[in-house]
Design a protein that fits this description.
Distance between the termini: 42 Å
Strand order of the largest sheet: 1-2-3
Number of domains: 2
Strand content: 5-15%
Largest sheet: 3 strands, antiparallel
Radius of gyration: 16 Å
Number of helices: 4
Number of strands: 3
Shape: elongated
Mean pLDDT: 82
Bound molecules: zinc ion
Low-confidence stretches: none
Length: 93
């Protein structure tokens, strides 16, 4: 069983849903074992606009706490962590 929030009745009503790797942006993908449909449970584009992402990256650069950023921007701390990882990977300083 996977978390209930992962189920998306728009795609499939089956409970036989399992992890199916990740997409390019690192979001978990799911696959239904009944109909073999594959989808992404929580597309990031909906919550996180490029503008918001840039603002969060700036806040991270200013060493604002992740908790504070999550609260300020209304995103999950996972999102903040993911962005921080991304900036660290891309930075060569
Ligand atoms: Zn299905």
């Amino acid at each position: 069983m996977v978390p209930k929030r992962w189920r998306d009745l728009r795609f499939c009503s089956s409970v036989e849903v399992g992890r199916y790797g990740k997409n390019l942006s690192g979001t978990e993908r799911l696959r239904c074992r009944d109909c073999r449909k594959i989808w992404t449970p929580q597309p990031k584009s909906r919550a996180l606009t490029p503008e918001k992402e840039a603002a969060i990256v700036r806040a991270l650069a200013e060493r604002t706490s992740q908790r504070g950023i999550a609260r300020t921007f209304g995103v999950s701390r996972d999102t903040v962590r993911t962005l921080r990882k991304k900036t660290q990977t891309e930075s060569h300083e």
